[in-house]
Amino acid sequence: MTFEQNPLTELYRDSQLLVVHKPAGLLVHRSPIDRHETEFALQYARALNGGEHVYPVHRLDRPTSGILVFARDRDTARTLGLAMMSGEVSKTYLAMVRGWPAECGEIDHPLRDEPEDRRLRGVEQPVREALTRYRTLATAEIPVAIEKYPTSRYAVVELCPKTGRKHQLRRHMKHIHHPIIGDANHGRGRHNRYFAERFGQGRLMLAATRLEFRHPASGEPMSICAPPESSFLDVLSVFPDFIAPDQPE
């Protein structure tokens, strides 16, 4: 594997951490759901690390792009992993959704666990508290009749999950009737198909754009930002005056 072939973009590195941008469509590591896959962010991060082992501190779903943190040793992975679980790490996402949500809001809606093992899907799973805060950054109305109205409305929202449930952001936005564009499981098929056909690709419009935490060794506050990748920004062109946070003007 050569450096030019590596789909990860390095955002930050020191003796404890390697932080990268993961493109949409790439699994973080091997999964029982996708046994046939042979490429993972973990192996590409190892290549960036000179072939030395790295430890994923958290995960991003395969269709989600954005900031992904790897630890370069077990102790760092354990320390930062505990900080993640205790809510000491702040995550910010950018998403494009159907409709116009309120200017800001809080989604306090418990979610049932979604097991990856298909053998457990018939077994009732526990319901856990889940909290997401959101802020609407931009709105647009396009002259296209996708459902029963002559025009269609969309918004760009900033999402800040305060808990870490599986598919929390996608499920919460569906819960308030503003599903994320490109979400095959929780979204609206007609809208997903329209954008897939218009832009030639049907990606999930969800990107992890900012991560804030205390460095596991020094305790210094860290704030790592990354603008969405080009496939995300292409679709955001329906918002003519909007510039994504952390994107150069």
Describe this structure in words.
The chain has a single domain (3-230), classed as Pseudouridine synthase (2-Layer Sandwich), CATH 3.30.2350. It has helices at residues 41-48, 74-85, 168-175, 189-199, 230-235; strands spanning 9-13, 17-22, 55-56, 65-71, 90-98, 104-108, 111-112, 127-128, 131-142, 152-161, 206-214, 221-225. It contains five helices and twelve strands. The protein is of the alpha+beta class. Strands 1, 2, 3, 4, 5, 6, 9, 10, 11 and 12 form a ten-stranded mixed β-sheet that branches. Strands 7-8 form a two-stranded antiparallel ribbon. The longest helix has 12 residues, at 74-85. 18% of the residues lie in helices and 30% in strands.
SSE blueprint:
Layout: E1 9-13, E2 17-22, H1 41-48, E3 55-56, E4 65-71, H2 74-85, E5 90-98, E6 104-108, E7 111-112, E8 127-128, E9 131-142, E10 152-161, H3 168-175, H4 189-199, E11 206-214, E12 221-225, H5 230-235
Parallel strand pairs: 4-11
Antiparallel strand pairs: 1-2, 2-4, 3-4, 5-10, 5-11, 6-9, 7-8, 9-10, 11-12
Descriptive key words:
249 residues, alpha+beta, Pseudouridine synthase, two-stranded antiparallel sheet, 5 helices, 12 strands, PsdUridine_synth_cat_dom_sf, tRNA processing
